[in-house]
Each structure stands twice: as C-alpha cells, then as structure tokens.
C-alpha cells in the first residue's frame, strides 16, 4: 500500500510507510531464527513432494502385490525403502502421492475460510444493523448444524455422482464441507474485534477526520482484528490436515482409490498393535512434522507481524 | 439486560426453525435423488411392492412429493412441526420411538461433553496462562510443542492405542490392587458400562478433551499476550499492584471472553469426535445414533435427533452470548 | 466402523469337535450343582456375551440376522433342532414330522408344552405365527420362507409401479395350513420338497403366543418364548438380559442362571474380553498373531468351518467380455485366494473351490470348481483365448460398504490387475442391493450367500434358479435348463438322500457353465474365557451353542 497513512493515531505506527517497514522488519526478524528456517524447509519439502511426486519415487502407488504384504522397511535403494502395507502396496510411493490431497485440501480450505470469514465478520461488526443480523443468523445456522451431519448428508446426496479422479476432484467434497463449516470462527472473532476496535480512540479519530469506511476497515480495524485470526490460521491448517484423517477414518474424506495421509493413517492404525507400527508411524510422522512446522512458522509470523507484541 | 435476553431467545428459536427447514430440504432432496429409504428396512432382500407400500405408510413416506425431485415437500414438513409441537417425534424405521432413543443416548453424550468441556477449560486456562506468563521461555515452548503434537494426533489413534495397549494392563492392575468393582478398575475399563456411566466415561472424555485442547491453549495464550500489552494491565502494573493480582484480575478474566465464545463454537464440532469416541468405546450416544441414522436415511430419526441437538446447541450459544454480554457490557448495546 | 461385519448370519458346518478339549467343567468345579444340563455350571452364574447393536427386534417372524437369531435360540424352541456334529435335524417340539409324497406334511407336537405366559404351545401357536409372517403387508423379514406353502401368493397383494396398493391381499391365512387338532398341524406345499422338515428349525418357524400377536410391539422388545430362557430386560442399544425360566419342561436347558448381552456398535470388543468383561470374542486381524502365539489363549480357542460363501458374480445380462466363459476362468485363475487370506484375514477364511460348502451340509463336496486354483500362466492363456480386455478401460468391481469386504476385494482387484493387466476400480455403494436387483452393474460384483438351512439345495436353487429362460435370474442373468431340471428332480425325489444327489448334479452344471467365481468360505472361531467350558459352535449361526455351555462364576 504505497499511499501514506492519514494522520494516524495508532500509537505503534511510526509515521509514513508503516506497512512497508513492518513487512521488511518482519522479514528480517524471521530470517534470524533457526527454527523458522528449519520449519520453512520442511514445509517447502512436503510442498514440492505434493507438487512433483515423481521426483521422489518412480513406483506406482496403485500397484499392490498381496504376496509382498507387510514387508518391513528395507532402507534406501531397495525395492520397498519404507516397506509395504497390508495389501502389498509400496509405502514410499503411497506416502509421496498421498501428500498432494492432504496438503492441497488444507490450503484450499483454510484459504477460502479465512477470506469468507474475515470479510463477513468485518462487515457485520462494522455496519451492524441488518448486515449483522443476516451474517449472525447464517453463522448460527452453520454452527448449529454439526459438520459431520452435513458431511454425511452431502455425501449421501452425491453418492451416485462420479466426481472424477483429478487432484481437485478427489478433494472436492471434503473441501466443500470443511470450508462451509470452517469460516464461522474467523467471522465471530473478527466481528468481536471489530466491535472493540471501532470504539478505540484512533478509529474514532480517523472517522472524525473523514476517512472512508473501506479505508477505516482496512487500515485501522482489520490490523486490530487480524491478530487473533493469524493465531488461528496455523492451528486451522493443522486442524484441516488432522480433520482429513478423521474424515478418512469415518470413510467420508478423500475417496479411495486416491491416497491421502489420512487414509494411510487410518489403515495403519489397525496394525499398530499387531507388530507393524511403521504402517502408522511413517504417515503419522509426516503429518505431525508438517503440522509442527506450519505452527512454528505461523507463530513466528504472528509475533513478527503484530505490532502490539513488540 | 432482560430485553437483550428476550431478543436473543427469539433469535435462537428462529435459528432453530431455519436449521430444521434446511435439514428437511436436504433429507428430502436425498430421498428424491437416491430413492426410497423404506428399502433400507428390507436390507438384503428385495421386497414385494406390497411390502414396500406397507412400510412407507407406516413411516409416513408415502407422500407423493418424495417421488418428485425438486419438490420441497412442505406438507410433510408442516405436519412434522405440528407433531413436534405436541411432543411427538415419531419413530425410527424400525418403529422405536425417537424420544426413547434420545432418552437413552443423550445422557451419555452430555456426560461425555461435560468431561470434555471441563478438560478444555482447565487445560486451556491453566497451560495457556502459564505459556503467556512465561512467554518465550522453555515452559512456553514446551507447552506449545506438546499442544501441537497432541493436536496432530488423530483422536482415533489416541483411543485405539489407549484401548489396545494401556487399558487392559491398567484395568488388570487396578482390579488386582483395588478390587474388581473399585473406582480405578472402572476408570480403566476398555469399554463403556451403562451401570457405571460416569466412571467409564472419564478416560474417554479426558482423551477426547485432550485432543481438542490445543486450540484453547493457543487461544488463551494469544489473548492473554494481548492483555499484557494492553493499557489496563500497564496501568495496573504502574499502580504497583502485585503481579499475581494483575494476572488473576486483569489478564485471566479478560481472556475468559474468547474462551467462553470458543466453547460455544466448538460444541457441535465435538460431535465428530463424539461419533468416533462413542464408536470406539462402545458408548450408546447421540453421535453414533445420528451416524447410523444418516447412513440408513432414517429421516424421522435424523430430523428428530438433530432438532433436539440443535435446540441444545442454540441454548448453549444463548447462554454463551449472555455470559459474553455480562462480561463485556459494550456488546449488549450493539 | 467395524472391522468385521458383525458376526453376521451364517450357517455353519460340522467339524466342531475341536471344542471338547476343555469340556467337562473347566478348571473350576466348585459349586457345580450337577443338574440335568450336563454338570459344570453354577446356578447363579452369568454368561456375558457381545451383541451387534443393529438388533432391532426379537420377533421370531421378523428376525433374520445372526444376532437376534442367536438370542432367540435360547428364548424359543422350534419344531426341530440341529445336531451340532451332523447338522441333521431332530424333532424337538415336534413329536413327529411325516409325509408320504413330500407335499402334504403332518406335524405332530409334544404334549403339555407352554409359553412363558402359560399359553399352550399347540398347532394353533405355529399356525398363527406362520400366517402372520406370510401376510405381505406385515412386512416380516422371514416372509419369503413361506413361499413354498400353498396359499402364499394370495397373501401378498398387488401394487402398481408407483408402489400404491391396487389390490389388497385376497387371503390373510395360508390355505396350506390346517390345524387338525391341538397337537396336529397339516401343511400342504405348492409342490413336493423333500427338504421341508430341514427348514423347520429356523427362527422364522418358531411358534408365538396369542398375547404376542395382541401386542406385537411389546412382544418384539420382550418376547414371550417357549424356550429355557426368558428376556428380563432389553435396554435397546445398550444391553439385553435373559434369565433361566424355571418352569421349562424339555430337556435341553443349561444350568447357569443369567445371560447378559452387551450391545456393540462395531465388533471392537477384544479388549473387553482381555479385561475379563466378556466370555467370548474374536480378535481383530491385527491381534490375531498375538492371540495365536499365546499358549494360554490357545487352550481356550474353538473353531469350525463356516458356511458362508463369498463369490464374484458377473452381469451376464450385459454385453461384455465376461459373457465368455474363458474370461471368467481367467479371472478365477488370477486370484491368489490363499495369499489374500494369509495377508488380510489369516485363519478367518478358507479358499473356496466349490459352490456348496464341503462337508458342512448334506451334498457338499470340495473341489467341484476346477478353475479355482491360483495359476497366473493359465489365467493369461484363458484371457487371450477370450480375446483380452478392451484397451484403456477400467473394470469396475461393485460391492457394498463393509470395510472388511472392501479390503478383500481390493486385494482381489490387485491380483487381477497384476496377473492379467486389467486395471480396475472398486465401487463400494450403499445401494448395493437395490442396484443389484435393478441390474445396474457394469462389471463384476461381490456376492455372498449365507444358507438358511443345512442342505446343498439352499446354495443352489435360491441363487441360480429362476425358471425364466429369456432373462435368466434377476441378479446375474444366468439360466440353464439342465440346472433347473436337476433342481426339480431333487425337489420331487422320494428321500432326502436321493434329493441331495440330484442337487449335486445341479452343482455340476454350475461347474461346467461357470457363471460365478467362488472366492472364500467363512470360518467361525472364538476365544472364550476361563469361566466357560463345553464350548460347541452352532452349525447355523456359527455362535457358541448356549444350551450346551457350562458357566462358572470364576475368580
């Protein structure tokens, strides 16, 4: 945002070019933290894996030979470096190809939810009146209908509809359901923060000075409200990745034969007590590592971006 | 305040009706697309047309609108509302009273949720406060790391490992040490026991609560960090108040607002966890009942159960909103 | 969520003698009161069993899944019961069951038997139960069992295509049922059927009291039986308790006092068994190896061959490679049955190489299927002979949503893909049965058969016979004149032995035509606690025979 801030009353914003300097400053702070670097590398690693699975394995994850069932991990260079699952499918190939649905789903869902939630929350909190009534009613209806019920109902509605097998097709239903039921939290927080911020002195001052609604919302109210939302985003991504596993367990997530980490964890969990812990630990380890990295990144980002916490 | 409560209650009822209508539309649509749920009654067998007609009549599915895709079936909806108003929630596809099913299932789920809520609140407020108070120190890092790890662990893995690896030996140990009917032996029973519902629900409730607690810990931490940076805390500190007093009265009390909101928000989300927990620990509860009902397109049961669930949720949200208004006076004039 | 379809209805077979290794009282003989049931039970002992949560009714006419059958087996007595070793029926409530022409059957009942409410168990008690079940609009699950009795068709009514009733049933009683006197029931069938007496031990043929029909809803929850146990309380979805009926007058009654069933949504009850809260359990696949290596548990293990056949069927009504017998052979030869079982369900299934369970029922024989071994080379050759599989197309395998079956059929699909190069996809559908009867399948599909009574005929006629030369049978469009003739010859045979031989000829026709591919037979197995002994599995349900069990208080 190139234009200078109008007569700002923000105590922490030192004069002009707030955003630019804040962003640059945050970047410099982040670069210096080793945990951030490591986390970023982890996220990049798995993202590359999701985008270009063939870089990591040339084995077809759908080629399963029952005679090779439950081969233990053989180490790098062998036919099955990470062993095989119950059906004799190669674990490494499954893990690599399973990254795409899991990560794609998480990013799509959280991205869409945040946008919907923030916009609606901001509007409701700022204008109140009928806008607020409509948004609040909608939020309440979605809060009252359990996500699981909606997922099941939608699934049973579309159970005879073939959605195809492309990368987006296999996550379409879970993404739709999780987004539909994922935005209300952001909306409520943003609405509450907007209510608070609206009464703050500097906002009142800005309004008195004739700043437009949009400008006040974006420049003054939003930064104030975005704090709790930023804190929620990493958890939300972790949440969606875990939720995918839960939906897979209930059989209403990514549709087989597509593979996802959740499906692998579900299948592996059965055998964890039977002497084949690697069937669970390998996909679960990847999931936890990714989630952990995302949370560290998110927290660091939040610390760096929130001016009031300096 | 009285007028505020009245207004919120009316809005709550409106929400409830809206939810029921949306669900009615969805289920009607599902029947119209996928065919007759009365077929489910016959399982593997192919019923004769006469048998099918008999079952349809028995469960009020004989209205022709169910055969016309796109028809909202308002008639049956109004009829159903009328029946609900008289306390008649109908029967499931097997002829069992919906109220009877709910009366058996609901207490177990409510008990489970109560344990879960307490765990959330205790862990969230406790660990969140510690993490915020000693921000950036090892306690903070440890708590955050642990909460992420727990969060990433799917609840079914937690329950599976508990049941198959820990429950049996713990139960054997407790039985040996304290006796078969002692409280500790019941705590570690691998499955729910209706005669000792509280004792056998405790561990599943704690595990389910644990799995969802990370969000609360992080929420409390974040909101308290903001409080620490807030003017009122600075003022309190500058007035020379004790740090403990500041934390208790200014920081923790303020952070309770988002936590209360979140408890209300998470209530219905916990249902997914409830389905899994109930399924794995063999608790006869609302989650499992609803799950089976949707899978069997048992319309009367789905709508009956959801209506009751929705009523409870609306009530909880009402209480939350009122508590919210009580904690933050500005809200109620909004 | 369950790993196995809840101990579903299964008729079983014979070789159950394994059980007797720990018979005769177990390790804990104190307090055994030595009453007529066979000795080792404590009169106040409680047997604790698991029950599937989908049990919704205990009405005999409406019960046909494994779990309510196993409850009703101790609550009701049927005309005949089955010998656990030979599966042959012997008269129980019936004094005699006789027929000169296999069409008109005279059933004489034992005297002075009563229901638990004091009503007499007479010919009328059977007639009222059967009429109720056969009446179409009552929509009883066991309705179809009565189709062999004269007058069945008149009780079904007519409806138009929209399901609206156009014609009420013309009759509300079976014309083929006649109560000659209180102890005599005469049954006239539509045609001769040598196996009729064999059917009569099934749940659907139990008698009911008049009080039961007066309030059917109450009776479905709290049955009025004539068996050795009466249902004390049923908290639906949670638990079911039955106690011994002290006035029981027949001989087959155990001496323990109470049976407690705990309802389970899935079959995840192994830890409860380990914790000592259940007397019988089956470990999940992952725990099998651990259980098999536990010497203590191995002493408390009982196993018997099951009789449920899982097979792969083809939409023969639809044009496709599968209409060529060579293609069906190729598929069958490409399936590594033993390898699949070893990997997924060790000890819980056996490879099938016949259409009737061998040794289990009269006329069952192993090895009637000559293309049921695993031979990839022969499979490839057969596929070539059939002209191969169309390039670039996927073979869809349709099945229901049971998780165990999905795993099994994924492995079958993998086997076919690997050995024949045919890419496949599974189509687990919740509308499996509707779609199957609507002929809505575009590829091979899973099918399964649980026999209802122990006779090879039950594996054959209900599945493959239709009498419809043009369209074939509904499910897969199979028709064979030779097959129909062999079945008819069996039905008309003078003795059961002769009938069985004719039915075997019908199976031989299947083996020639190869319309379906047998895959696996079920196996029944249980681990049991130290509190129970004399464990014998029921030839039908695969469940322990509760009437033979001995239970002590343990601990």
Automatic annotation (TrEMBL), chain A:
PROSITE patterns given in the database record: ABC_TM1 (PS50928)
InterPro entries hit by this protein: BP-dependent_transpt_permease, MetI-like, MetI-like_sf, OppC_N
Keywords for this protein: Cell membrane, Membrane, Transmembrane, Transmembrane helix, Transport
GO cellular component: plasma membrane
Annotated TM spans: 36-56, 103-129, 141-161, 167-186, 225-252, 278-301
Family listed: Belongs to the binding-protein-dependent transport system permease family.
Pfam families assigned to the protein according to its UniProt record, in alphabetical order: BPD_transp_1 (PF00528), OppC_N (PF12911)
Biological processes, Gene Ontology terms: transmembrane transport
Domain of life assignment: Bacteria
Location of the protein in the cell: Cell membrane
Annotated membrane topology: Multi-pass membrane protein
Chain ranges of the ABC transmembrane type-1 domain: 99-297
Upper lineage: Bacteria, Bacillati, Actinomycetota, Actinomycetes, Micrococcales
Species the sequence originates in: Krasilnikoviella flava
Protein name listed in UniProt: Oligopeptide transport system permease protein
UniProtKB/TrEMBL annotation, chain B:
Keyword Coiled coil: no
Entries under InterPro entries matching the protein: MetI-like, MetI-like_sf
Tagged with keyword Transmembrane helix: yes
Domain ABC transmembrane type-1: 106-324
GO cellular component, one term: plasma membrane
Keywords (A to Z) from UniProt: Cell membrane, Membrane, Transmembrane, Transmembrane helix, Transport
A Gene Ontology BP annotation from the UniProt entry: transmembrane transport
TM spans (from-to): 112-131, 143-165, 198-217, 259-281, 301-327
Membrane topology category: Multi-pass membrane protein
Signal sequence residues: none
Subcellular location: Cell membrane
Membership in a protein family: Belongs to the binding-protein-dependent transport system permease family.
Annotated protein name in UniProt: Peptide/nickel transport system permease protein
Naturally occurring in which organism (per UniProt): Krasilnikoviella flava
TrEMBL record, chain C:
Location of the Solute-binding protein family domain: 89-470
A Gene Ontology term for the protein's cellular component: ATP-binding cassette (ABC) transporter complex
Presence of keyword Glycoprotein: no
CDD domains tied to this protein: PBP2_NikA_DppA_OppA_like
Pfam families referenced in this protein's UniProt entry, alphabetically: SBP_bac_5
Keywords: Signal
Transmembrane segments: none
Gene Ontology molecular function, alphabetical: peptide transmembrane transporter activity
GO biological process, one term: peptide transport
This protein's record includes keyword Transmembrane: no
Secretion signal span: 1-19
Gene3D superfamilies: Dipeptide-binding Protein, Domain 1 (3.90.76.10), Dipeptide-binding Protein, Domain 3 (3.10.105.10), Periplasmic binding protein-like II (3.40.190.10)
Name listed for the protein in its UniProt record: Oligopeptide transport system substrate-binding protein
Species per Swiss-Prot/TrEMBL record: Krasilnikoviella flava
